[in-house]
């Protein structure tokens, strides 16, 4: 009798404790991790506490229905999970200054991924590869490539301040449902998005090449700032939101043979080697056209409507404004200015259109209220966070 009376509650308590072990879990040591090794699914969040030190292995767990968070665990050197294939919440690794091995051999799906300040992490050992992700944010790592991130679908894709990142090839990505941003990575970063067909914003700063042969439509901004490529070719692109080429020092040729519509403003400025702007099919720009710089050829074979203003100023003097003068009123509805030979060409807001000319400010021009609402500055993610990466460069 006494037995039964005490045994039952003890059993119940054990069961509760067992069940809780497959729920929210805080890991301070490898034995805490071993305590959930019998759970094939963890229904809750797994958090590694900042006093953890050394190598962590999460064995046997196949699915995490929650977040996996490792934040400010500066003594963690290695993190392995041999069986996890899915994390439904956020997979967050932040401020892990000595983490050099990250091995998730089966991981293929994450709710979202946030990796930041991982200055010792040179590669991802994601053998299966992450094919499905909501938003992906990777900043301030030592990664040389994103091998292991083989996305078929993604929401926002934001890759910033990875100073060793040389190539990004997201071969299978066809449709990005959020914004794609590359900023302040290794400056000879080469980006290949061979199958990307649609997206929202695509913004690139400080890259050396981009290949988007399949890109067809963007509902948001297409913007290139401070890049190093010579030619921009988007053969299949038919429509975008705002379109911006600014401060691209090597750019000599912009070719968008199929572009018919810009749903916003179109700005080209401070691209000092630019010669040819070839837009044979462009019919409609719902904002303003604002081109200033060195170019000698502007081909608008099909222009029917520019709803905003028109500003064309070049140092070259070879093209003729007559063609555009005739478009005033009928095709070009807003304010109009065309100067074929202008030593100090300016944007419609008066900023210098070349980096060498003396007029305007010498800092990068932002044309507020002009053709385009200019994008945000590089990596708002926080200067402090970049300390590690910079420290390693020095
Ligand atoms: C990081 O963890 C250390 C202890 O390991 C703690 O002293 C420090 O306050 C933590 N920093 C942040 C930003 O949480
Ligand atoms: C891209 O994905 C979004 C969201 O799933 C969908 O609404 C849209 O139709 C897709 N676009 C294309 C071209 O597949
Ligand atoms: C470009 O568009 C054409 C016509 O829609 C299509 O046949 C071709 O496959 C596209 N090219 C690429 C590289 O996607
Ligand atoms: C996307 O572009 C729009 C302007 O077209 C801008 O307002 C928005 O902030 C951009 N989003 C990001 C993340 O840059
Ligand atoms: C990145 O490009 C911007 C122009 O958009 C330029 O001002 C900046 O110096 C570049 N940064 C690096 C690290 O190259
Ligand atoms: C610009 O690029 C297009 C597409 O590749 C090409 O047809 C054209 O000849 C190039 N123009 C110059 C001046 O390089």
UniProtKB/TrEMBL annotation:
Residues covered by region (Disordered): 343-366
Signal peptide positions (record): 1-19
Pfam families: Ecm33, LRR_5
Major site of localization recorded for this protein: secreted
Residue ranges with Low complexity bias: 346-366
Segments traversing the membrane: none
UniProt subcellular location: Secreted, Cell wall
SUPFAM superfamilies recorded: L domain-like (SSF52058)
Annotated protein name in UniProt: Protein ecm33
Organism in which the protein naturally occurs: Penicillium cosmopolitanum
